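B., you asked whether I could sanity-check this one before it goes into the benchmark set. Here's the sequence:
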Amino acid sequence: MTTTKFDYDLFVIGGGSGGVRAARISAGHGARVGLCEESRLGGTCVIRGCVPKKLLVFASQFSEAFEDAAGYGWSVGETSFSWTDMVAAKEREITRLEAVYGRLLANAGVEVHPGRGTLVDEHTVLVGERRITAEKILIAVGGRPYRLDIPGAELGIVSDDAFDLPEYPQRVLVVGGGYIAVEFAGIFRGLGSQVTLNYRRERILRSFDGDVRRVVEAGMLSRGIEFRYNNLPTRITETPDGKRRVDFSDGASGEFDIVLFATGRHPYTGGLGLENAGVATGPKGLVAVDEYSRTSVQSIFAVGDVTDRIALTPVALMEGHAFADTQFGGIDRPVDHANVPAAVFSQPPSSSVGLTEEEARNQCDSVRVFRSEFTPMKYTLSGRDEKALMKILVDGATDRVIGLHVVGPEAAEMVQGFAVAVRAGLTKTDFDRTIGIHPTSAEELVTMREAVA
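And here's what the prediction gave me:
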């Protein structure tokens, strides 16, 4: 049931993955929908995140493929890489995807208003000079990367900037230890840079399973990435020749072409006018929502990275779709964040679903651990010294698989399929009854029989 009291039944602030999905599905349910976007349709994922980053990962892996080819009888001649050509190709692809998003919205009947939207009250959004009213408002503005609060931080860059550098850097300092830091370290190293990763803790990927962290770190070390743990940059200055001199908290210093801050992201709520509508926020400006994505204000909702939930693009898509189905499709669809699979496109790549070993031991009375580390068949002839990891965590009381972790080639492709099994609550016995595909790395996940712990 729509109403004519407002300009729209739904107005979406933000044209990223979650906002566009919510707008399209809501319009498909018959709602009158408007959307505003201050930058480019597609948001972080399409324009300055997942998509261009994965393209750069692909580009960076060719250097390794050229090296490995000799073991298979190939003779590869002199090679070279053009950063300018890669950036241009990347831009063509995201421009194409941006146009696709525009057509999807137009075909669904969603009206797009260029510009940043700010809340005036619980039913009104200001876009430029235009006041727009809506029965329901959805906040889907995402997050933005931030720099450390140190002298000279403005001389560093963030992940948004890394895709369009005017020149390719030869010496790179990556500050941070999460998935963005790890991925960009692998990208720059694969493209030929000397890379140092600086992290304030003792090992990368803090929230991941301990074996995953260990095996990914080993693979990065074998590729020549240097780690500087347990300290932070304290100051950045520019040298006479345009380099970045970095002073560290342990008293050391170094010079780099760029300093990339991969130290996290904050919700993009500054100046959004949340206080005008009475929307409650939490730490760092995160918007608190319930299982239906409703904020503290009855008519205002939020999905995606701006909320206090899981900051992953597929999660934002799910949240946006569930919101639309519930509010305009007559479907009671609360959001379920259990067993969300995730991947780190590090080098080597990793992917996981379910609990880490530490989480499993904290939540279950008994846990059986199945683990296999081996050289992937792909590397047997090339001679590359790198191990893959397959790990399964099983609840000892129920035999249910509660965690699954993979490090190695095509890790994400494997885990996407196994995530269905974990989500469905299948047991280790179900895994054991499944016949493996030989020869593959994935068959290890259905052939491990002896628990290691």
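One thing to flag: Residues 348-446 form a domain with the Enolase-like; domain 1 fold (CATH 3.30.390.30). Otherwise nothing jumped out at me.
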